[in-house]
Amino acid sequence: MALDEPPLGKDVQVGPGSVASLPLNVKIRNHRGTTVVGGYEHFFELTASAAHIWRQIDGKRTVSDIAALIAQEYDIDQESVVQDIVELFTELARHDVVNITQGDSRG
């Protein structure tokens, strides 16, 4: 299943202050340099950059926190990283591969 498939109708709000955490049913596999994540019904093959973002999910860091880490590491614009993370987390949350809660209002 690709990330560009239509949403499943789940209304997910992800923003700079959102926090992602992993549901108990999510499985993560690394095979020959490819990261695959999934729940009961949906699996996604992550790009290298999406896998790097995935590894930052700890249930505490906000989207802005993760974006700041990545922007600093790669010397890129933090706002564009925030947009990429919001898009990734929105799709994964619509397919129950991450949980989204609202952290703080920073960002």
Order of strands, widest sheet: 2-3-4
In angstroms, what separates the terminal alpha carbons?
Answer: 31 Å
Work out the radius of gyration.
Answer: 13 Å
The overall strand count is 5
Which overall shape is indicated by the principal axes computed on the Cα atoms? globular
Strand content: 15-25%
| Count of DSSP H/I helices | 3
Derived structural class: alpha+beta
* N-to-C series of helices and strands: EEEEHHHE
Low-confidence stretches: 1-8
How is the biggest beta sheet arranged?
3 strands, antiparallel
Average pLDDT score = 88
Percent of residues in helices: 25-40%
Please summarize what this structure is.
This protein has 107 residues and is α+β, with helices and mostly antiparallel strands. The chain has helices spanning 48-54, 63-74, 78-94; strands spanning 18-21, 27-31, 34-38, 43-46, 99-102.
Describe this structure in words.
The protein has about 110 residues and is α+β, with helices and mostly antiparallel strands. It is about 35% helix and about 20% strand.
